[in-house]
């Protein structure tokens, strides 16, 4: 992951080098391929030029009247003819995104007393130089008339190259090496522990649910998906974990962007899930990752049950909100006046328990808990050599230890967590029944005012 | 790439309106004008952050597997990265915007939505950029990098 302005600018340059591709030897296919590559690059140039200008503006105001700047300004503001129907080149789009982030990183890291940062400026000019050179090279091959077009791009390349005053070695400064993203260096087992604690905290019953509740389902999906890839699992367990990952992914997907939970997102869970994801996903496998995955797996079923119970409570008590505009599209006529007014002014309204999204959110959560792989899989004991004894079930007051009986375990956890009798009963039956077609609905409705504290 | 500002309004929040009213009552016309300018700038910032938040949230949702498809760990991780960016944008002051989050336009692959979000954020003037936007923008770039080419173009 890019962590500093240097990293971002390096990666932007790497993306530009990736523009180069070998063209076919025969004239006609070569022209067709070059034409496609040229069009895609041209479509991406406005965004790339805007991003490059942002870094140049942050590093060197003195060159505002240079030809390169003026050309970039023209490109940035242009709607290039023919580019609308062409998908922009992915590498150049990525390079633009990286330069844009680099501009922020440079601005944040630059000492206010330093008027210019020639090294950074030259790195952007080098990126412009090489990108324009590639675009020009493809233009040359597009047709017999491509030479004129190519000449303009090659001129931009030459102008950018002509302004560069530093060597590649001189283009690195301390200010641009400052990390802008937090590192995930903590041991993975610690990340698992933090995830377990922060998830348990937001899953506890409270009048105001956490806006981060859906992220628990997401984190459960990645834990099971990582477990399915672990090196030391049987084929049976692998299949079971894969199925669980699917179910929890569905539970996560059941929360569309237009349905939210008002309130502040949980910072602790955010950091914990970020560290968990970064640790569980990545190239190669390691013993630490397998051990941490096993540890996370031990808590997954417990957290899953708590999640389902919490979700049922939240939906039943109408603590989630939905965009009024979206709700209008699925309501039967006549639509309540207050909903119409809310839709007109772009507001949130409490999510009705009978809305499609509400049904999906609860049914997928309950289905994931009911999923055989979640509750009936044998409990694995953590590896003691990494101090994992802290993660055994017996140490946890919410579980009884040993292999879980699905129904009893679900009811016990829900009871211990303080959920209502009806939720406990529903959860217990959900873990035992073949399907959940109807979800009992009860609980007092919250007023829209209570549910729109954070949402406009 | 076209950036739509369908909800770009100059409406001010009730708090800002009250500030404006107080300023006018005190016959401080110049100060009143400054407050209006600040409110407008704040409103534009809110709109940009809200729009970027919606685009990133939609990309996160779009990267989740559909139906009975197996979970692709890399793609699922990319979705989580997008959620992390959305969280960071909220930390910068973005409020979930009911209309923008309901809006299906621009339609497109998650990578296109993220690239558009990056452009929307880049449009925010330097003097209005929240400090924490640096981190959000860095994570957004990382999320874009993690996507396969097919989700960008």
Structure characterization notes:
The complex is a heterodimer of chains A (456) and B (153). Chain A has 456 residues and is an all-alpha fold. Chain A folds into two domains: 5-177; 188-451, no CATH class. In chain A, 61% of the residues lie in helices and 2% in strands. The model of chain A is unreliable at 111-115, 373-409 and 429-454 (pLDDT under 50). Chain B is mainly alpha-helical. Helix content of chain B is 63%, strand content 0%. Chain B is built from six helices and no strands. At the A-B interface, helix 2, helix 4, helix 8, helix 9 and helix 10 of A face helix 2, helix 3, helix 4, helix 5 and helix 6 of B.
List keywords for this structure.
heterodimer; A: 456 residues; mainly alpha; 2 domains; three-stranded antiparallel β-sheet; 3 strands; globular; disordered C terminus; B: 153 residues; 6 helices; 63% helix; elongated; disordered N terminus
Query: Helical element count of chain B?
Result: 6
Average pLDDT number of chain B: 77
| Helix proportion of chain B | 55-70%
The spatial strand order of the largest sheet of chain A comes to 1-2-3
């Amino acid at each position: 992951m890019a962590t500093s302005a240097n990293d971002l600018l390096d990666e932007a340059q790497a993306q530009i080098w990736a523009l180069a591709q070998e063209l076919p030897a025969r004239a006609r296919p070569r022209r067709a391929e070059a034409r496609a590559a040229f069009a895609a690059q041209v479509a991406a140039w406005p965004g790339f030029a805007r991003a490059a200008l942002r870094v140049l503006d942050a590093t060197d105001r003195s060159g505002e009247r240079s030809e390169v700047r003026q050309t970039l300004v023209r490109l940035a503001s242009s709607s290039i003819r023919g580019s609308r129907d062409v998908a922009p080149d992915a590498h150049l789009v990525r390079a633009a995104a990286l330069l844009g982030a680099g501009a922020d990183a440079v601005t944040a890291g630059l000492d206010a007393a330093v008027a210019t940062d020639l090294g950074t400026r030259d790195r952007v000019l080098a990126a412009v130089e090489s990108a324009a050179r590639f675009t020009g090279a493809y233009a040359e091959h597009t047709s017999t008339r491509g030479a004129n077009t190519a000449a303009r791009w090659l001129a931009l390349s030459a102008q950018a190259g002509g302004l560069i005053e530093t060597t590649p070695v001189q283009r690195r400064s301390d200010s641009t090496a400052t990390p802008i993203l937090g590192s995930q260096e903590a041991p993975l087992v610690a990340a698992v522990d933090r995830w377990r604690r922060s998830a348990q905290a937001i899953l506890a019953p409270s009048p105001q649910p956490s806006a981060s509740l859906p992220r628990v389902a997401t984190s459960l999906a990645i834990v099971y998906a990582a477990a399915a890839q672990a090196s030391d699992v049987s084929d049976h367990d692998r299949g079971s974990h894969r199925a669980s990952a699917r179910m929890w992914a569905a539970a996560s997907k059941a929360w569309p962007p237009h349905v939210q939970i008002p309130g502040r997102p949980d910072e602790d869970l955010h950091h914990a899930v970020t560290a968990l994801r970064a640790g569980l996903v990545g190239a190669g496998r390691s013993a630490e990752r397998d051990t941490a995955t096993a540890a996370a797996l031990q808590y997954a079923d417990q957290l899953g049950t708590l999640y389902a119970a919490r979700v049922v409570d939240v939906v039943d008590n109408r603590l989630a909100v939905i965009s009024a505009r979206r709700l209008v599209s699925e309501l039967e006529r006549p639509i309540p006046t207050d909903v119409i007014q809310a839709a007109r002014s772009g507001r949130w309204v409490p999510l009705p328990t009978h809305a499609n999204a509400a049904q999906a959110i609860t049914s997928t959560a309950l289905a994931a808990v009911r999923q055989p792989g979640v509750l009936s899989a044998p409990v694995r004991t953590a590896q003691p050599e990494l101090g994992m004894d802290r993660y055994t079930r017996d140490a946890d007051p919410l579980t009884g230890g040993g292999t879980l009986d699905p129904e009893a375990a679900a009811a016990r956890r829900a009871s211990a967590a303080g959920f209502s009798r009806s939720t406990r009963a529903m959860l217990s039956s959900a873990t035992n029944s073949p399907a959940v077609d109807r979800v009992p609905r009860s609980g007092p409705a919250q007023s829209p005012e209570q549910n729109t504290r954070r949402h406009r | 790439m076209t950036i739509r500002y369908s909800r770009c309004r100059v409406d001010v929040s009730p708090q800002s309106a009250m500030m404006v009213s107080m300023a006018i009552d005190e016959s401080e016309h110049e100060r009143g004008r400054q407050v209006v300018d600040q409110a407008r700038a704040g409103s534009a910032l809110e709109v940009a952050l809200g729009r970027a938040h919606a685009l990133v949230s939609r990309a996160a949702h779009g990267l989740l597997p559909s139906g009975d498809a197996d979970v692709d760990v890399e793609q699922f991780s990319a979705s989580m990265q997008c959620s992390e960016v959305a969280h960071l944008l909220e930390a910068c002051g973005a409020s979930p915007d009911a209309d923008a989050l309901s809006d299906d336009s621009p339609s497109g692959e998650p990578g296109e939505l993220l690239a558009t979000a990056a452009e929307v954020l880049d449009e925010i003037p330097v003097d209005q950029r929240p400090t924490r936007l640096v981190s959000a923008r860095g994570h957004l770039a990382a999320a874009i990098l993690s996507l396969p080419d097919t989700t960008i173009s």
